[in-house]
Design goal:
- The complex is a heterodimer of chains A (314) and B (305).
- Chain A has 14 helices and no strands.
- The radius of gyration of chain A is 24 Å and the shape is globular.
- Chain A has a domain of 217 residues: MetI-like (MetI-like fold, Orthogonal Bundle).
- Helix content of chain A is 72%, strand content 0%.
- By secondary structure, chain B is mainly alpha-helical.
- Chain B has a domain of 207 residues: MetI-like fold.
- Chain B is built from 13 helices and no strands.
- The longest helix of chain B is centred in the first third of the chain and has 35 residues.
- The radius of gyration of chain B is 24 Å and the shape is globular.
- Classes of the chains: A mainly alpha (314), B mainly alpha (305).
- At the A-B interface, helix 1, helix 3, helix 4, helix 5 and helix 6 of A face helix 1, helix 2, helix 4, helix 5 and helix 6 of B.
Amino acid sequence: MKLGHKLSNATFFLLPAIILIAAFYILPLIVTTWISFTPLRDWKISQLTEFVELENYRALYKFVTTHPLGSLVLKTTIVFVVFTLIVNVLGGLLLAIATYVIEERVSLGFRLLWLIPRMTPLAVFGLIWYYFFYGSPQGTLNAFLLKLGLIDQPTFWGTDPNLLPWSAWSIIIFVNGLVGVSYGMIIFYSAFKSLPPELLIAAKVDGASTWQIVRHILIPMARWHLVFVTVWQLLSLVTSYTHLFVLVDWRIVDEWYGTTWALFVFTEAFGTVKNQGLAAAAAVILVIIGSLLGLLTLRIMRFDKITLEPKGDI
Amino acid sequence: MMGNGKNELMGPLVTGYKSYILIGVLLLVSLPLILAYSTLIITSFANTIVSNPWVKFNFTFDNWIAFFRGELSTTHARIYTTGEILRMIGNTVIVAAGVTAVVLGGSATSAYAYSRMKYRWRKGSLKLLLLLHAFPGVALIVGVYTIYYYTLVKYIPPQSRTLYSFFFVILARASLEIPMSIWILKGFFDRVPWELEWSVLIDGGSRWTAFRHAVLPLVKPGIAAVAIFAFLAGWEDLIYVMIFLPPNQKTLATFIEGQLASGSLETSYLPIMAAAGTLYLLPTILFFIFTQRLLLETMSGGLKG
């Protein structure tokens, strides 16, 4: 077959994806970058052709360096990303180890249970934690703590000014951790599963304890996966905003102590402020950080080596 | 796919009383999750919020009935009609089904090309797909909304705008699932032996015939997995539906959001919202029960090239 024919064949098969990706990734990215140089507010589209040079970036810099809420957004982002990352990676590893060493039937039950938050509709997941942290004695957490005698009266856990900032931070870390932890669990678990059984049998015959097997076989085996999951989760935590949006929107946590950089972009663009120029500038910063982390992940994955060559092409 | 060799050959690593301790610890760690989900589901069948094991409650279908009658406040005032409630459920189904169709149409042929053909940029664009999957969605949505709003105002006559917004939200939401779906499906295509297509091509059949009649029937589990993920993605979406659909076109997600968003709490009655939430959770639970292994294996396969 001639090259031209072959290329057109491949193009034919790739066309639907190319169109969707061009229309909903490439073009929007260009538009967002464009908006970051315009004074766009309240979606007044006539402002799309006015230019303010770097004004939005300057305003953003000023907001972050001088405005108390600006530095709070940065602080919340760092705390959220660092601690949720630890929960996701270590929690995922512990869950994977625990479900690997126990009986398969029980293990399957737990793995599925921990997968549920990831698959639960966002609004339902929000609703669940709304009940859980509800500020009356009927809230699940309040009810338990009252019953155990640890508190005298119910508290609005995420918004009580006396408990901020760590109360709100703990809740956003907790809720996002429950969703994120299953990713590490699945990756580590399938890494363990790919171990040859002979290795484990040999270790057992030689009298190795379970702890020694975990310490000297499972964890070293998952070292590469640990790095991969850490970087990949770091990337997804920096850019995630949907669960935070619900927590903040429903006042499960305080508005500002629950706002990370990504959510700030969203609120600036679609909230009450509607300053799209500034939001776009903040979004561009996020894209730059996200792309760097993404490229780092590809390097760690040794992408070029694990990609299969296409099968049987003519 | 994942060898179950360990358990068949040697049984679990931890047995006896130690395994009970470990399972106990796992249960304890899972307790908030178990409590939170049972609060939602049990409350939907109770006359009060069943937030802890000490609550006394009566079993009732009243919340479900009240939800379908649109009586969403403690005073039993009808805020919505039954027709409007059904419309919300219908809208949720339309978006989910639309996203499924676009994802399958947009990813199946590309995944085949990535698995079977050589072309320039193949590796580069495969990398790009992975980057796009992790791309900051919030940066995209600003641009996507601008394009939507601009085209809506400039080119779409008022009577077609609702249709356009549905069309747009489905395409935009589906696109987010395209990169991962191509990756997942490519994995399934990679496992199909090449000989089958070869015989079609030798007999003078086209690539399309080979794809459509020889390979596609063999990757049904992959198609099913991608379809389920896509359906649940469309079904669960809140952000896109909230932003793109006009306020009078609600889905279950925006309905719940509207009831709980700051300030509007007084009118909503939490057990009725639990019924709405449980209904909304139902497809997820059903898919879980019927396709558990497929979901777990597909998710773990996402990492492999």
